[in-house]
């Protein structure tokens, strides 16, 4: 009998571990299903916002022509907040807005992102704080369809409808879209659309455009993209 006790203890321990694992598995499965359900509900909510007026503009960095268009947009719609994600150097953007006599009070620069995925990753919490429900995505035709799919997946999962606003480009863009890049980024966007309900990253490099101080920059050695035709006469 004494020899059986250790065996019984091991068996009972294994059964207890399996029971705990089954319980944890059920909790995880329930959490995943709840997040998927929430994502679906929010995506339908985003669809219901498509007829609402634009209450936010999101500019993907990568071309100074998008920032030039954003300056015109700010003159047309000074009341709508604009977020430029990982765009040109801040003095270049400041000079473009200043040259266009475009208001800067509603323009912010986010400089944490280093790829298209992280443009959405870091900017989503900012748009949520602004309580945006219908955002215009300013990008280029060369950035499609990857950008609009990622935007509608990630922003849509938070109830934000995305309307593309395509800026004409001159010349051939340096970053070419590929099917593999699109598949990988869209897949990553799908995963993040679920996880984003649990975690919202923060970016400590968000600057109000009107607060850019050109004296803090070495303008003589700062070169903006040539299509911007920025000249430092400050």
Describe the 3D structure:
The chain is α/β, with parallel strands linked by helices and 234 residues long. 46% of the residues lie in helices and 13% in strands. It has 6 helices and 6 strands. It has a 6-stranded mixed beta sheet with strand order 5-4-1-2-3-6, with helices on both faces. Strand 4, helix 5 and strand 5 form a beta-alpha-beta unit. Helix 5 packs parallel to helix 6. The protein starts with a helix and ends in a 26-residue tail after the last strand. The mean pLDDT is 88.
Notable features of this structure?
234 residues; alpha/beta; six-stranded mixed sheet; 6 helices; 6 strands; 46% helix
Q: Shape, please?
A: elongated
Q: Count of helices?
A: 6
Strand content: 5-15%
Element order: H for helix, E for strand:
HEHEHEHEHEHE
SSE map:
Layout: H1 4-48, E1 56-60, H2 64-76, E2 82-85, H3 90-99, E3 107-110, H4 116-129, E4 134-140, H5 146-154, E5 161-167, H6 179-195, E6 206-208
Helix pairs in contact: 4-5, 5-6
What can be said about this structure in brief?
With 234 residues, the protein is of the alpha/beta class. Helices cover 46% and strands 13% of the residues. The termini are far apart.
């Amino acid at each position: 009998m004494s020899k059986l006790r250790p065996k019984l203890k091991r068996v009972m321990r294994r059964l207890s571990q399996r029971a705990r694992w089954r319980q944890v598995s059920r909790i995880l499965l329930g959490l995943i299903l709840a997040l998927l359900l929430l994502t679906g509900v929010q995506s339908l909510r985003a669809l219901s916002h498509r007829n609402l007026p634009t209450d936010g503009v999101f500019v993907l960095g990568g071309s100074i022509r998008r920032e030039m268009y954003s300056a015109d947009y700010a003159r047309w719609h000074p009341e709508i907040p604009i977020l430029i994600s990982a765009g040109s150097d801040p003095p270049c953007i400041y000079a473009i807005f200043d040259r266009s006599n475009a208001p800067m009070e509603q323009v912010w620069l986010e400089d944490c992102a280093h790829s298209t995925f992280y443009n959405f990753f870091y900017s989503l919490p900012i748009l949520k704080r602004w309580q945006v429900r219908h955002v215009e995505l300013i990008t280029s035709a060369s950035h499609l369809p990857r950008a609009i799919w990622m935007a509608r997946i990630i922003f849509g999962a938070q109830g934000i409808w995305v309307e593309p606003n395509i800026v004409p480009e001159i010349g051939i863009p340096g970053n070419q879209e590929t099917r593999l890049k699109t598949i990988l980024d869209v897949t990553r966007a799908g995963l993040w659309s679920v996880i984003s309900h649990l975690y919202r990253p923060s970016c400590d490099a968000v600057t109000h455009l009107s607060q850019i101080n050109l004296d803090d920059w070495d303008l003589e050695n700062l070169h903006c993209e040539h299509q911007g035709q920025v000249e430092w006469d400050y």
